[in-house]
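PROTEIN DESIGN WORKSHEET
SECTION A - STRUCTURE
LENGTH: 162
TOKENS:
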């Protein structure tokens, strides 16, 4: 780690985690042997499993859980608020108590392509594949490929070559 990485004292880092420059981590958990690319932010309450790859320019917000061996492509954006506002009805600035964090789950060995947007409250099933640029608005079944805006199933994900 070097001076271009910001890791708050409340971050729980597993063994042999690799973190590249210009990363911001606070209040999160990162599992063993996971790689975090350049220009990634992981917010408080987010959990990333073991042996994951988080590619550059990705935003992982509060409420996101990424299970073991998942792949997150470049510039993937997670969202955790169904109806965001900067102010309350009376015009006062919203605080952490004025909104509901809606959790999202990425299951084991799922893959999310570059520039995908993942709306809150969804589960991306085990070994599912979200195509690059897709906008995920609903749950993705295990071992299914989804693509488009909104993302729709386009077929089964083939077995991984071993």
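SECTION B - SEQUENCE
RESIDUE ASSIGNMENT:
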């Amino acid at each position: 780690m070097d001076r271009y990485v910001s890791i708050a004292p409340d971050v729980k880092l597993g063994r042999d985690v690799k973190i590249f420059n210009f990363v911001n981590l606070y209040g999160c958990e990162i599992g063993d042997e996971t790689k975090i690319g350049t220009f990634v932010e992981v917010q408080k309450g987010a959990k990333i499993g073991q042996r994951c790859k988080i590619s550059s320019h990705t935003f992982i917000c509060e409420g996101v859980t990424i299970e073991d061996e998942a792949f997150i492509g470049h510039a993937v954006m997670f969202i955790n608020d169904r109806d965001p506002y900067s102010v309350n009805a009376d015009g006062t600035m919203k605080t952490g108590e004025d909104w509901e964090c809606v959790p999202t789950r990425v299951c084991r060995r799922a893959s999310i392509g570059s520039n995908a947007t993942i709306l809150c409250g969804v589960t991306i099933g085990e070994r599912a594949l979200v195509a690059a640029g897709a906008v995920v608005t609903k749950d993705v079944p295990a071992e299914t490929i989804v693509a488009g805006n909104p993302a729709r199933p386009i077929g089964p994900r083939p077995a991984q070559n071993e």
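SECTION C - NOTES
The first strand starts at residue 5 and ends at 7.
The chain has a mean pLDDT of 95.
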